[in-house]
Amino acid sequence: MVRAFHDFGRFTLKQLLSEAQVQAGVRRLAAEISAHYDGRPLTIIGVLTGSVVLLADLIRLLDMPLRVGVVQARSYRGAATTPGALTINAESLPEIRDCEVLLIDDIFDTGQTLDELFAQFGRLSPRSLRSVVLLRKLGRSRVGLEPDHVGFEIPDEFVVGYGLDYRDAYRNLPYVAALEAGELVEGAGA
Ligand code: 5GP
Ligand code: MG
Which of 45, 53, 109, 116 to mutate to test the pocket of ligand 1 (most atoms within 8 A of CB)? Predict the structure, then answer.
């Protein structure tokens, strides 16, 4: 079994977005979000674990009254379960009925995670429900939903850093990098 966390450094990284570019993107997202909510109270919900870095940076650039919650979304894509079926651990969620809610995730790939979260959160009767992602992969979406705020469009490559992992490693990189495809181990989840 490959233990990428302990093999840190053995993969070839190709930087896609520098730390300065990422930070500029986060400031752009904060400006868009501030303009949209115009000082109204906001409940921001981070999708664990990939969104935590963006969440921490973004909320410090927002100055409306703000609550923060997190949700664990785990998709099972094995043969025994429906592809894309998602379970949500809502234990650490604040009350969102009648609140303006913004879901925050690291990356929009096929869109299935956010699409399913929207369906499930919609049943909790928020006043409004929107989404922000740092990255969106081009040409991959399999759903009708579009994220409301997107930091960067990126090519269809497997990326790590700024919250995104490969087998639990690399989340702490301050920049975004692609891993060389030939070095990836089949079946690595995110
Ligand atoms: P989706 O449901 O949109 O296909 O996938 C969303 C989730 O898949 C993300 O929250 C992330 O956990 C994972 N994911 C998709 N693409 C990548 C990638 O390039 N790198 C990493 N580290 N995770 C990814
Ligand atoms: Mg994720």
Answer: 109
Query: How far is the centre of ligand 1, averaged over its atoms, from the C-alpha of 40 (Å)?
Result: 30
Give the angle 129-130-134 at the CA atoms, nearest 5°: 150
Tell me the two tokens of residue 33.
């979000």
Residue by residue, pLDDT tens for the chain (190 residues) are 455 666 666 788 999 999 999 999 999 999 999 999 999 999 999 999 999 999 999 999 999 999 999 998 876 555 444 545 677 776 778 899 999 999 999 999 999 999 999 999 999 999 999 999 999 999 999 999 999 999 999 999 999 999 999 999 999 999 999 998 777 776 554 4
For residue 155, give the CATH number of its domain. 3.40.50.2020
| Ligand 1 centroid, distance to 61 Cα (angstroms) | 25
Q: Is 117 helix (H, G, I), strand (E, B) or coil?
A: helix
| Domain extent for 90 | 2-77+84-183
CA distance between the termini of the chain: 17
Instruction: Tell me if 108 CB under 6 Å of ligand 1.
Output: yes
- CB 159 near ligand 1, within 6 Å: yes
Count of domains forming the chain: 1
**Do 140 and 159 meet the contact criterion of CB atoms below 8 Å apart?**
no
Does residue 190 form part of some domain? no
Tell which atom from ligand 1 comes closest to the C-alpha of 112: 2
- Catalytic residue annotation: 109
Answer whether residue 55 is part of any domain. yes
Look up residue 14 and give its two tokens.
């190709």
